């Protein structure tokens, strides 16, 4: 993130981060063409439009991208910058959720929590795939960590107050919405906007979801995110 002074304000300029691997590295499961369009055009447009929207405003006053997402969510009364800010964050998170030679099964504490909260890894897969497949229209499916008895903070709005005994949850969100706005810690996401898979899978969203889980997920990244989420706040 660059910062520059604009009319007396310190204005943040967010950069388009590249995926943490070459654009052809996920083939044959996700094509270079998909990455070139999805990252190079769609993701780039979200970042470019966000920078135009926040320049010279309070949202551009040196805030992190996460802070811009939460502030512009505005407890559900969305400000104009929300969609581009959230989509910029969502896509950074999505690219980092995958790796060449991914998929398989997690291990260690992550696997233990999945088995505790979903009954088995297979039941988790079933629930995650169902959430992604049944998200109507555009959106995302997520594995999140929710600290027990966590209170609402800032602009966060908790949509699942009855889930007090779980640490891991599967949720789905429409359009650009992400778990940051509910004060959940995101661990894994899959993009189910059509532009994420149409070049490779056309209208076969369930096939895309299965390939993502079986061949692309970086469980190492998910485990590191869990470790960060569980760390005491400083």
From TrEMBL:
- One GO location term (cellular component): chloroplast nucleoid
Q: Where in the cell is it found?
A: Plastid, Chloroplast
* EC identifiers of the protein: 1.15.1.1
* Primary localization class, coarse: plastid
What's the catalysed reaction?
2 superoxide + 2 H(+) = H2O2 + O2
A single GO BP term for this record reads:
response to light stimulus
For this protein, the parts annotated as crossing the membrane are none
Q: What class of enzyme is it?
A: oxidoreductase
Q: Which InterPro entries match?
A: Mn/Fe_SOD, Mn/Fe_SOD_BS, Mn/Fe_SOD_C, Mn/Fe_SOD_N, Mn/Fe_SOD_N_sf, SOD_C_sf
Cofactor(s) the protein needs: Fe cation
What GO terms are given for molecular function?
metal ion binding; superoxide dismutase activity
Residues annotated for Mn(2+) binding in this entry: 38, 91, 191, 195
Annotated ranges, domain Manganese/iron superoxide dismutase N-terminal? 13-99
Superkingdom is Eukaryota
Q: Where is the Manganese/iron superoxide dismutase C-terminal domain?
A: 106-225
A Pfam family matched in the record: Sod_Fe_C
State what this protein does: Destroys radicals which are normally produced within the cells and which are toxic to biological systems.
Looking up PANTHER family in the UniProt record yields:
SUPEROXIDE DISMUTASE, SUPEROXIDE DISMUTASE [FE] 2, CHLOROPLASTIC
Say which family it is in: Belongs to the iron/manganese superoxide dismutase family.
Name assigned to this protein: Superoxide dismutase
Q: Which organism is it from?
A: Citrus tamurana
């Amino acid at each position: 993130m660059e910062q520059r002074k604009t009319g007396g304000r310190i204005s943040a300029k967010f950069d388009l981060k590249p995926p943490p691997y070459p654009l052809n590295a996920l083939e044959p499961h996700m094509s270079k063409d998909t990455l070139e369009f999805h990252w190079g055009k769609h993701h780039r447009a979200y970042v470019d439009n966000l920078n135009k929207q926040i320049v010279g405003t309070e949202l551009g006053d040196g805030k992190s991208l996460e802070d811009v997402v939460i502030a512009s969510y505005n407890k559900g009364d969305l400000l104009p910058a929300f969609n581009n800010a959230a989509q910029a964050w969502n896509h950074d998170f999505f690219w980092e959720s995958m790796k060449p030679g991914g998929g398989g099964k997690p291990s260690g504490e992550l696997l233990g929590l999945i088995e505790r909260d979903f009954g088995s890894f297979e039941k988790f897969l079933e629930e995650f795939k169902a959430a992604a497949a049944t998200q109507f229209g555009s959106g995302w499916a997520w594995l999140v960590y929710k600290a027990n008895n966590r209170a609402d903070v800032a602009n966060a709005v908790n949509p699942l107050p009855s889930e007090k005994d779980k640490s891991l949850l599967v949720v789905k969100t429409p359009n650009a919405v992400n778990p940051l706005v509910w004060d959940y810690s995101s661990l894994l996401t899959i993009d189910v906007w059509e532009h994420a898979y149409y070049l490779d899978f056309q209208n076969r969203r369930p096939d895309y979801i299965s390939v993502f889980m079986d061949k692309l997920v970086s469980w190492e990244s998910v485990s590191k995110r869990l470790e960060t989420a569980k760390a005491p706040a400083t």
